[in-house]
Amino acid sequence: MITREGMVEKRGVGHWFTHLGLIIGLLFIFFPIWLAFVASTVSQPEIVRPPMPLLPGDQFFENYRKALVSGVNAPVAWMMLNSLIMALGITIGKIVISLLSAFAIVYFKFPGRRLFFWLIFLTLMLPVEVRIVPTYEVVANFGMLNSYSGLIFPLIASATATFLFRQFFMTVPDELAEAARVDGARPMRFFWDILLPMSRTNIAALFVILFIYGWNQYLWPLLITTDPSMNTIVMGIKQMFPSGDDIADWPVIMATSILAMIPPVIVVISMQKLFIRGLVDSEK
Amino acid sequence: MEKRVTFKGIWLPLLLVLPQMLVTAVFFFYPAGQAIWQSLFIPDPFGLSMRYVGLGNFEYLLSNPYYRASFVTTAVFSILVTVLSMGVALYLAVLADRLIKGSGVYRTLLIWPYAVAPAVAGVLWLFMFNTRVGVVTWYLGVLGYDWNHVLNGEEAMGLVVVASAWGRISYNFLFFLAGLQAIPRSVIEAAAIDGARFWTRFRTIVWPLLSPTTFFLLVVNIVYAFFETFGVIHTITSGGPQQATTILVYKVYADGFVGQDLGSSAAQSVILLLIVGALTVLQFKYIERRVHY
Amino acid sequence: MATVSLKGITKSFGKTEVIHGIDVDIRDGEFIVIVGPSGCGKSTLLRMVAGLETVTSGEVQIGGARVNDREPMDRDIAMVFQNYALYPHMSVYDNMAYGLKIAGTPKAEIAERVAEAATLLQLEDYLKRRPRELSGGQRQRVAMGRAIVRKPSVFLFDEPLSNLDAKLRVQMRLEIKQLQRRLGVTSLYVTHDQVEAMTLADRMIVMNAGRADQIGAPLEVYANPQTEFVAGFIGSPPMNFLPADMAHDAPPGAVKLGIRPEHLTLAQTGTAAKVIYTEALGAETLLHVDLANGTRATVRQDAIAPHPKEGETVHLAWDAGNRIFFDSEGQRC
């Protein structure tokens, strides 16, 4: 800190310009969110007669109640629940299967280990967007359209988390596993008593990243949930726009947009340190 | 790097990898294999049987002006998104790095957009620029500019670029700020003592030392623009007008699901697969030997 | 309490044999130190006794029973690791209790045994702490406590002191020795530090490139090294090696004459040597000299003796009884 204060441009007028520059940036970033919030608190006539006001109105409770309870096609509260189940399903599912397979790869020598390693390595390269048509067919054949498992499983099939845990396990000293062996711990006991508690921070960091990844999915739910009661909130917003020339119910749509960003924003802000760590780790 | 393998057993580890193996086989390898397989066939007009055409789908695609146009669109879109979001993020990161205190507050506020889904970001920007009710559209009209991204391809492109870049600023900002804070203060102070002013220092010291971060972000952002912006495009323009914003991923969706042209969609998937593969290799190469200068 | 026998132990990694056949019988309660330079196979040997490495051929016996195929936990051993290998997320108490918990020992007995070990190691005040809140010496004690509570027949130590600073190392060395005396548990201790080996061992195994060059009591090994390697490795400063033809009565086949620095004396006549530099260490002074044939030698003198200056020429003498000869294979002759 002292060294930083010594630097020339940190003093006087320049200091205020720095703040000014950042505040301009913040305005750019927050203006769309602010506008959405304002729109979610005013009435439809105030919006369709532009320009709409730039300060919140008095329809907050009315609009949010309408969105949550009835929505346009399905109640938004219901869609949020779907999103939550999908996000948690992806997050927990991915963490669990990744922990298990990373444990096997790092702590065992078994036939096919190399092959397995390279197979999951390949999955790093292909986002779901690239293989949507055949994946859709698979899910349809299993009868998993409009189901939670159909929403969740295809998005678990990637190995980013496996690699992350593998990397972490590699840094755990060999002697710990040996000490556990001498202490009489069998492999799963070692995994449960020692490896898992030691991975807590990594798991939490990954949880944040994956939760947001899952919550924010768009294309996949769009394809496989034709039933409005299975819509997730992020994809459901687009479904609220009327086809043709009808005027959209903007206050409700914008209230839904705000509701769609609240859970991930809360997760990111409240677990900021873990989030940044997870972000940096998962890209290494 | 190998661990001194410490546990014996064959069935236990196989059991442990089984869940991941199953999920990956069913929802990854089988569909990916299908994509490659289907790319070699075209369905007959009644959809009853498939006819083997070898690389016919690829030849057709590569000679198809719409597909080529989509390539160009994707390139323009990706470059604009990458440059815009990285530029703004670098600007903000440099400013935040100059602060003695308070940079934490700005950081907390600036990571918000990361949590906003691309599709939601699309809706937010669509609302501002909506031709009928958009606030920005209205004020532009007052200034005498008639904004209409529904008809004007360039305006549509501009809008999806800004909306996509907006959601990406947080991510780039965090990495740039971490990169800047990793540069030893002593190096910068030495330059200051040598008489280099801020801009000179940035050009000759900070920017070169930041190059690994910049290169990394370049690759990651291009991948983002390629694949993860589907939500933005689908909500704002649906690829229009006249395919002006149909990027490759959008076209896979449009041809495969809307157009039901499975062979072509599969061939497009394979081409995308090759592009991602190349980008991933590039990224891994970079990780192996960190770029400097 | 148990005896440990190693019978013709070899170890190969792939096609490379790294341990070439070790035979030793360890008495009940004996403190054995395995010493040698890094890469000589001493840790591998210990890990084979522990059951952390498989034995390629030969037999490991503990208490007279063959244990080659037993898991570490079934060998009735406890091990102290070089970096202590404490479980970072567990308290000191839990670290020590973990093995007993797995074995299904009743809670009350665990508490009693841990308390006992903690008293012995002066760890009573630290039982609730996590390893990272402890100093190096305290972590070392916890690692030993973890071994003690299990009341094993054999203690295995894998360079347990190498992560400590010099002063603490001397202190802990003493503590380990006293503890082992008190508990009377058969111990195998691996180190690369020959001073540690000399001070701790009842008998030591000097290892060189996968072989046991010599097994014996420290002073016996010091006075009567069987190979040139042992002669050079044990003792500080190391033994001087002079060309064998400097002695008129060298046995046939001898190429080197070994003599310890303390056995070289300054005399009026004898082999001429030039003093290159002197090191005054307080209690003693080391003279580093060059002989006419270019060989460098070290002379150890009491500090009170008058010292020649650097650059001066001196004459060296030695007693024939203190000489040792080695052949071209490095074997005693």
Structural account:
The complex is a heterotrimer of chains A (284), B (293) and C (333). Chain A has 284 residues and is mostly helical. Chain A is built from 16 helices and no strands. Chain A has helices spanning 2-5, 12-39, 44-48, 60-69, 76-107, 113-123, 132-141, 148-156, 160-171, 174-182, 187-198, 200-215, 219-224, 233-239, 250-270, 272-283. In chain A, helix 2 crosses helix 15 (250-270), helix 4 crosses helix 15 and helix 5 (76-107) crosses helix 9 (160-171). Chain A starts with a helix and ends with a helix. Residues 288-293 of chain B have low confidence and may be disordered. Chain B is an all-alpha fold and 293 residues long. In chain B, helix 3 packs parallel to helix 8 (153-181). Chain B starts with 10 loop residues before the first helix and ends in a 5-residue tail after the last helix. Chain B is globular and about 75 Å long. Chain B has helices spanning 11-38, 56-63, 65-98, 103-110, 112-115, 118-129, 135-142, 153-181, 185-193, 198-209, 211-228, 230-236, 248-258, 262-288, and strands spanning 41-43, 50-52. Chain B has one domain (58-288): MetI-like (MetI-like fold). The longest helix of chain C has 18 residues, at 166-183. Chain C is of the alpha+beta class and 333 residues long. The chains are: A mainly alpha (284), B mainly alpha (293), C alpha+beta (333). Chains in contact: A-B, A-C. At the A-B interface, helix 1, helix 2, helix 5, helix 6 and helix 7 of A face helix 1, helix 3, helix 4, helix 5 and helix 6 of B.
User: Could you state the CATH homologous superfamily of the largest domain in chain A?
Assistant: MetI-like
Q: Would you report the number of β strands of chain C?
A: 18
Structural class category of chain A = mainly alpha
Major sheet details of chain A: none
CATH classification, class level of the largest domain in chain A: Mainly Alpha
How much of the sequence of chain C is in beta strands?
A: 25-35%
CATH topology grouping of the largest domain in chain A: MetI-like fold
Q: Give the CATH architecture of the largest domain in chain C.
A: 3-Layer(aba) Sandwich
Oligomer: heterotrimer
Largest sheet of chain C at a glance? 6 strands, mixed
- How large is the count of helical segments of chain A? 16
Runs of chain A in which pLDDT lies below 50 for 5 or more consecutive residues are 1-9
Strand order of the largest sheet of chain C: 6-7-8-3-9-10
The CATH fourth-level homologous superfamily of the largest domain in chain C: P-loop containing nucleotide triphosphate hydrolases
